[in-house]
Structure formats: C-alpha cells, structure tokens
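REQUEST FORM: STRUCTURE PREDICTION
Request ID: SP-0412
Submitted by: Lab K.M.
Chain count: 1
Length (residues): 470
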Amino acid sequence: MSQNPPSLRPDLAPQPLVDAAITKKRQDQPTIGMVSLGCPKALVDSERILTRLRAEGYAISPDYVGADAVVVNTCGFLDSAKAESLEAIGEALQENGKVIVTGCLGAEPEYITGVHPKVLAVTGPHQYEQVLDAVHLAVPPSPDPFIDLLPARGVSLTPRHFSYLKISEGCNHACKFCIIPDMRGKLVSRPVHGILREAEKLVEAGVKELLVISQDTSAYGLDRRYSTHPWKDREVKSHITDLTRELGQLGAANDLWVRLHYVYPYPHVRDLIPIMADTSNAILPYLDIPFQHGHPDVLKRMARPAASAKVLDEIAAWRSDCPDITLRSTFIVGYPGETEAEFDYMLDWLKEANLDRVGCFKYENVAGARSNALPDHVAEEVKQERWDRFMEASQAISEAKLAAKVGQTMQVIVDDIDEDGIATCRTKADAPEIDGNLFIDEDTQGLSVGDLVTVEVDEANEYDLWGALR
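STATUS: Completed
RESULT:
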C-alpha cells in the first residue's frame, strides 16, 4: 500500500501504463517501445504518437525487450530532468540500440547528439509527423488491415478510468526561470468543438475522470480571439468558461469528474467558481494554480504577476462562493536573490492562503533561462533548509485539513486494489499521483478499478485518508 510522497516533483505525469491488449503481436509484426518522461502534456504526446503507430500496424512494447526500435519522449523542465532524459536515452541505446528522441529536450538536438551521437533522430515537442517519419526509416511499417484494429479511444498510457484532455499547446508567459515557451512555442488553442468531441468519445469509452491540462488553461482561446464553433445544436465560444460549462454538462448524464489543472488567477477565473459550486454538473471544485511564490518582489524577479495580496482576496472570494473548493499549487524556494525575509513572507502567505495541496521544488538553473543571469544565487544548503521548512509548514496545513474530514461522508474513485484487497482511492480533492489517497481496507470484494463509491472517513494523517464503504 503506497502513501502519498510529500516530496513528489510537481512536473511529473503518472507512470505510463501500456494495456496488455496492444502489446500482443502477430508473427513478424514490427514493434516499437516507448519511454515517456516528464509532465502530463508530454504523456498525451506519447499517447498520440503510439495511437498513430498502432494504426499503421506497429505493435507496442512497454519496454526495450523485443522492440525493433525505441522512442524516448524527453523532458527539459529542469537541469535534473534533462539529466534524467539523457540517462534514459543512454539506457535505451545500451538495451536496444535503435533510439528516436522526441519531446521538450528535442528542441536542443545538439545537446542530445553531443552526449549520444548514435541516436537515429531527434525531434522537438509535439512533432508527431517527424517522429513517424523517423520510425518508418528505422523500422518500416507492415500493416494488416484485417488484424490491426485501433481501439475507439486510441492508445492510452493512463488507467482506463481517467484520461488527460489537452486543450492547448505552448504559453504566452515569459517567466524568467522557464524555457517551456522556447521549446513548445506560443499559445496555440484547439478549437472548442474538437475538444468536446474528444471528451465525449473518452466518456463513451468508459473514462470516469477527465483532467484538463495545458501550459496555461485559463488563457485558453486567447490566440483564437475566443472564436465560436458549432457544437450539437448551438454555438460555443473557445473560452475557458464556456468550455468548462460544456464539459460540466457532458458529465451531467454520466458518472464523471472533470478536473482543471494549471489555471492562472486571472480575473475571469472567478466565473468558473459558480460552475464548480453547482453540484448538478461534472466540474469538480478543484483548482490547480501555480503561484510559485508569495512575495511580490520575488514574483517580479520571476516576471510573474506580483499582486499576491489581491490573490489572497480572490481566494477568499472563491471560498465564499464555493466553500468546498480545493486549491493546489506549486512553489519555488531558493530563487535567485530570495532573502530570508522574502522566504518568511512566503511562509506567512502560504499559511494565510491555507492551500489544501502544495508541491515545492528547489530552484535550478536551466540552460537558456533568463534567471541564470540574476545576481545573488542562493546556496544549495540554504535551498534545502528552506525547502524543509516550507514542507513542514505545508504538511501542518494538510494535516489539519485532513483531520477535519474525519467523520465526513464523500464520494471517491477507485484507482487500484492490491493483492491484500486494500483499495487505493481518491476524493474529489485529489488528482492522480500529485495529491493524496484514501484507502479502504475492509469489504472491498465487490469493488473494481474505476468505481465511484461512497465512503465515511475514519482516519487521517498528513497526506492521506482512510475510510469505510457506506
């Protein structure tokens, strides 16, 4: 039975899962392995690549064994993530020999080939056609239209009961510590009817939870000037409020959860709160907002919105309109120039904001980021000490909030049932992998993964809950 790790890095997706059905292969069928690193947005890219490959007649391998070539989808979020990607490429070369690299780190091909010159090809993020071209050269396709059938949902690397729904690519922000816009480009939003059609197909395929993701979810549609598109019997605007409302209605006739990630606290976010407060639709009262810091001077050095005091007012207003709302965020400690007073200010801000779920990582230089040139970089031992203090403060908040849930009755979704019959579940306040769990250790014989069930909470610790079926 696993428990929520408090030091989980906030940029990681769940461990990719390859369904056994797509690993079965006919005689002489070419097979491609996939290694997917990084965030949920990268995981969606991996799913799209594998879906295309599967449709072209390739079998899929969850590892290097038996694969004719391997695609490594890399991450470039932090220098530590880059090192992890290089290590994965090296391992794939050693174990397999034929390696095609894609993803965020692929935006720096010389960086990769300088370390691993034997890779067959390097492509950047969401360059699906170039990946397919490289695979075709390395391992020619051999489709059999009477045998190679693509599932209606395509290839998924998440459990069948939840799925990521990516609504846009890129980002218009210019945060000094981040090079994602350099790698993934400016904001490019998908048309609203395309998103809704995909969401509808996922629900029809049995998905119980949709996790809406992008680099900046609240900016959705800005690049399209909030264009309208026909959907069903009406016109729908490419705007996060309209999209959220439509997704909520999609779930009104189904057992469905819809969760919003990576939302910046723009003024129009307040229009989402009444939708979340309306229990007749599928939108969960949950916002994932990357605040990054609390001190206005640090936020200015980050080139991020610096009105942290106004954000506290917004949070209070959200909670007034939707008392059950869960707020999760990520923070950076040890940003260049961060003083002890600025860090203490952030701790006080965190305590006043009283956020439900918090992730934190220590600042790292990333090649190409403008923050590298800032003065007064913080020593590693100071970063570690501040990270420890931050996590201690956030843990105390989490412990108090979870203790208050003991005795409450709530709906949970079942993620796993182990060999001892212990069910690992999540409440509406918990996203997969990055938040906590609720465990049921009795009377789970009739449960299945993906079930939505009602429990009474009878125990809590710093990050997780335990409950009994009701």
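NOTES: Residues 146-152 have pLDDT under 50 and may be disordered.
Reviewed by: T.R.
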